[in-house]
Design a protein that fits this description.
- The protein is α/β, with parallel strands linked by helices.
- The chain contains 4 helices and 9 strands, in the order ββαββαβαββαββ.
- It is globular and about 40 Å long.
- 34% of the residues are buried.
Length: 194
């Protein structure tokens, strides 16, 4: 039987602050992606695994586990880490250092990676100091309850993945990913109230 409690944290390269350590739980598997290993020190943790081609930071000196990726590849370092965790049965993944920065395509790529995870049954959260994003898939039987719980807690924005979405390495420009405010009375996004 698959362990549905396996949690992991992916650290990408966008700098984080110590406040994001609130997303860490004891027993989390931490995977740092390329320059994301620098974020581990900021959060006061050691990564269990470092993956990357080290094109954005020098290869760290470590005795820990490391997967060195080729420079020419189909997946980003973060997407490779996500696939690695998904293949090993992780059901809850938090992505830190994956939002913001000077290059918007990195954020879009990381949202695409989150869509890949969600389409494979992973409960995924992307977070930075100002935002927390959850992917709610139509195929997720808990999606409605999850949306309500998230809205009640503190979040007023959700991503809705349209039916028929096929998450992959690229975002298909013919599909629409909508960002919608939750209704203040029901706590649910507009698409759920139809």
């Amino acid at each position: 039987m698959q362990d549905l409690t396996k949690r992991a944290v992916i650290l990408s390269a966008m700098p984080v602050t110590p406040a994001l350590s609130a997303y860490l739980q004891p027993g989390d598997t931490v995977v740092a992606c390329d320059a994301g290993y620098r974020n581990a020190a900021v959060l006061g943790i050691q990564p269990d695994l470092i993956v990357g081609d080290f094109d954005s930071a020098p290869k760290p000196e470590t005795t820990g586990d490391m997967i060195i990726l080729p420079h020419v590849k189909d997946d980003t370092d973060t997407h490779y880490a996500a696939k690695w965790l998904c293949e090993r049965g992780y059901r809850h993944i938090v992505m830190l250092g994956a939002l913001g920065g000077k290059r918007m395509e990195h954020t879009f790529s990381n949202v695409s990676t989150a869509l890949y995870l969600a389409s494979n049954g992973v409960d995924v959260t992307l977070a930075d100091e100002h935002s927390e994003l959850h992917i709610l898939c139509p195929s997720d039987p808990l999606g409605s309850r999850k949306a309500a719980n998230i809205a009640k807690e503190r979040l007023d924005v959700s991503f809705r993945v349209p039916a028929g979405w096929a998450a992959g390495r690229c975002i298909d420009s013919r599909r629409v990913l909508s960002i919608e405010r939750c209704n203040a009375d029901t706590g649910l996004p507009p698409w759920h109230q139809q």
